[in-house]
Specification:
Four copies of one chain form a homotetramer.
Chain A (H helix, E strand, L loop, with lengths): L2 E2 L4 E6 L5 E7 L13 H7 L17 E4 L1 E2 L2 E2 L4 E6 L5 H6 L10 H7 L17 H15 L3 E9 L5 H11 L5 E8 L13 H9 L5 E6 L10 H4 L18 E2 L2 E2 L4 E7 L9 E5 L4 E5 L13 H19 L10
Antiparallel strand pairs in A: 1-2, 2-3, 3-7, 4-7, 5-6, 8-9, 9-13, 10-13, 11-12, 14-15
Helix pairs in contact in A: 1-8, 4-8, 6-8
Chain lengths: 332, 332, 332, 332
């Protein structure tokens, strides 16, 4: 339930206010150089508090290796990384336990787990766990070597000028969503399968596991539904399979075609808006006004790019191993 | 690679011009009444040739049970169904083998499988295999009992008046795409998991396994990226978790919330457009003009609704079994 | 439930008295030459009726390819093979339905599947399905190329002189069991994993899926429990890892060590003995005498060697693919 | 590779001389009372140093919960437990690195992982990781409630008088093996599947993942190969499926039959015998005499019972969940 991948297999665990969150990567090739410093850039990119619109909660987020690394290289055994939770303020959440927060899992988690769930800070449902995904991505990107995975914000609050979109949120004292695009270059032809293990299926599966993602589209995506066939088809212009256009986003019949892989995700506005809301009070059974306490992002989309890169890299590392393009002992 | 699901597990096989396509459902509960007649409606809905814009190829598409049914009931053993391929015209494909058709898997399949693939009619990549998905859906819907799964066409060729959209294609002598929406009613609260097995992840995985799907969105979907938080949040209005609006599409934190599940897919225009195209000729190594031969749909989106219902029902049947809401012996 | 393997994945289906039994191999490499004739030898070895002690039921057992083969080569798509059931006599089983046969699954199947199971000839529990395993083995052996997998009967009815063991059964008008040993030569070092995916775990998993297997041991096996450490340890005698003895059966720490892989299975006597038994009569609720009708083997162990080879080859083909020793396009 | 189970899913990680070993249980039902004290008994049983014949290495082995427990109950989220490695003496291993120890994974691990493996104390191959299995077993036994899982030593060094067997080892200054039997009472009828997911397949898979296990047999096991059919068959004596004898060990057709489940494992003598051995010296390339340094058990079989119980309980908890006999929220 909390694992993904076939040969490069990720397991995540932890709760927002528990002792730590963490990840096991099972099937990671042996012989990859890996130190805590490799994680700094992407973990910083993911962190809140460094830009307008993100949460002031600050975690040190130093990866603590528990297994699978020896002499600064991966061993081929399960690679386990912990991130301690040092900076939690559970009291914020305790106070407003009466209100299952709209847009959050509070209500459904309670029903699903019979009230046994750790509800503090969203517990296991917390966006805090995306630090584990980012860590997996750091390793996956190393596995992918010359394949480049890059995600960028296309739009915030409906504006392609991101600053402008954020200002809208600040002015409205509300949260906003956004759109993030991921591009992969350097992929070989032939990753993926027809039907259930299409590259689109696997990437969408992974992308929708990022909290707040509500839409995924490849290439022309939803716009393709409005195009004519000749217009949408990407003509092949040479014997390497290069296409003149890339409406398919680099995937045909579920298989990478050697062109850039391009896809986008829609991120809903942060559910924990500072604005007053009306919703059920569990204790009274009535709909009442309340405001979400705690530290939150005005726009969670700002933090998504390294997470989207991470899950993309995870999927592609797995496919490269499945296709035998990468061996279990690295660079051998 | 060609299987999906954990407890209600689907395996599909076959090629467009081979002897048959088929499906195994492993983990199907025992005791479900099942006869060939149960398949008629959805298989007819999927079929080409019955409406403007679909292919004139006609298959009888009678399900042939090979295993798992006894005395007109499922036994609990693997349920295997064949659909014979009676009405194939391989010569159409043979003639234009020089052109790897744009938008199709011809080029990537050849690279991936080293030229060993059955290329006739797209082989294993053919939309023909969606009849297997539809058959799985018929069984899955029976498993789901009072849960209703319905897909409808929202838009063809950019027009919500579908006839108008089709006429555009006919006038342009080109193919067009469309948008299909699926709605599920009667779901319990609590299906799905946070992260990798979120309901969105599983449904998107399944939906992107349908050929020609290029986008998937839940509830407000891509529009959510343009909304404010308070606007998007679905306030809970009673102790059953009923929400006033349904921008989330019935899923929060990856878990069903008891409201209607609503999601949409974008279908690209049929790659086999009747219009002349320019693309690589493998034999000459040059870009040349050609027209796709064979019988094809002007708008494949027209045939998607029963397929989308099918994969949706498959995913939900699996989740209902995982959650223990359905037992392995039916109605016991 | 009815599938096995990670990259070379087997699915079996069918009932003893249904229209057919069959198999899908998903993940079979493309480009393997394959015709019906490749199956003749192993299928004949498995068949009853050709030697003293096996059932007179004769099946033609001609493999019917449904998918995955094109121009006499595997395509890389799912490989589906049917074996029709032509020679069934359901009335034999119908008559004695009152007695859940001791040693058979009649009683437990009825409880598990709520009486919906196809009980004729054991239904899906029938040894008939081992023809599917044998077929998978034929393909797996081709994948393994220069790795040789051979199983032999070591002992029948407690006698290493097999004829003598069979004669004991004939004299006693009862059935007998036996021991079968499988030896694999030509394996590389390094297949398998510590713990859950140890070569022993995977082979034992597969071997115990053969009906009537009640014990599995590697190398010295149960005898190892009586040995001293220095006696049991296989000293390494050269830099290739060659060992002087092979008490480990070619597996240490769950990993192949480059020596011959050797393991044995214990086969119980055929449950359908011709001798009169006493057991529950479902209809009367009383213990009564009865004799099993139908055609049966005096010693099912005689038919096990090609089946044991098959499941062994399946496991090893999967491990060779996992380890990247075999690519998805064959001999490329 | 390092995970097992379908719904009650175990992941293990860690190395003998790394910071910690640990386990994730994914799919553990919510609402089970769980504290560190629950682990004391089985962890003590597993520990070395408390009886003649086991290693003097002493670990505190206090379970450290990282996730999945809240208010002393399981939450339904992944349950992660660490066991710190406090008492390691890597220098012992460093010194004799030249000799890949016979019976150990030193040689194969080096080949498999390209020399990147953590070789100290056997690294990830160490028996140290069985503490993780024992921990999983503690939780699994709680899940199983009234089902009792008990393993006992049947024989050490070929002697049913265990003290006598150990004395043989002490006298010979060598290590010895043994046989351990596991009995499960209180199982329902109907767990398991025909073929690949037979109860025997799953239990053997799990049992062979315990280091040093070289044979597994159910009920009469290898002795069954010497019996006649009427002798081996367990006559059913009442409508509940009770059998007069239990030669099948409680499993027919791969399915539990409601009688006691009984199986045995053969444990090889500890590979690290104190006695001098001759084997390859990697540095010289010659066969030389050496003695294994470090603290080791004379008879590892003594420590197997709680580990065998643990993997048995894991498998059965998974099957009980699969069969819907246990729900994801406990005792609801």
């Amino acid at each position: 339930m909390n694992s993904f991948g076939r040969l490069f297999r990720i397991n995540i665990f932890g709760e927002s206010h528990g002792p730590a969150v963490g990840i096991i990567i099972d099937g990671c090739p042996a012989g990859i150089e890996l130190t805590a410093e490799d994680f700094v850039t992407d973990i910083e990119r993911r962190k809140g508090g460094t830009q307008k619109g993100t949460t002031p909660r600050q975690e040190a987020d130093i990866p603590i290796f528990q297994s699978g690394v020896f002499n600064s290289k991966t061993t081929g055994a399960p690679l386990t990384i912990l991130f301690e939770n040092n900076n939690t303020r559970s009291s914020d959440y305790q106070k407003q336990r009466a209100f299952p927060r709209p847009g959050h899992a509070d209500f459904v988690a309670s029903k699903k787990f019979g009230g046994n769930e750790d509800y503090r800070g969203g517990g296991h449902f917390s966006g805090r766990l995306t630090v584990c995904l980012v860590a997996a991505g750091v390793v996956a990107k190393k596995v992918l070597q010359n394949i480049s995975v890059t995600a960028n914000i296309l739009e915030i609050g409906g504006e392609s000028d991101v600053e402008k979109g954020l200002q809208k949120a600040i002015n409205a004292k509300d949260s906003v969503g956004g759109i993030v695009e991921c591009t992969v270059t350097g992929l070989p032809i032939g990753l993926g399968e027809p039907f259930f293990d299409s590259v689109e299926s696997l990437l969408a599966h992974a992308a929708f596991s990022i909290p707040a993602v509500k839409g995924v589209e490849f290439g022309a995506g939803f716009l393709a539904a409005k195009m004519f066939g000749v217009e949408h088809n990407d003509a092949i212009v040479d014997v390497n399979g290069t296409t003149g256009t890339n409406h398919a986003g680099g995937v045909v019949g579920g298989i990478t075609n050697g062109n850039n892989l391009v896809y986008r995700v829609a991120i809903k506005p942060t559910s924990s808006t500072p604005k007053e809301q009306e919703s059920l009070n569990w204790e009274t059974g009535e709909v009442e006004k309340f405001s979400v306490k705690g530290r939150h992002d005005l726009c969670i989309a700002l933090r998504v790019p390294p997470v989207l890169e991470a899950v993309t890299a995870m999927v592609l590392a797995d496919l490269m191993l499945l296709e035998g393009k990468i061996q279990r002992v690295f660079n051998q």
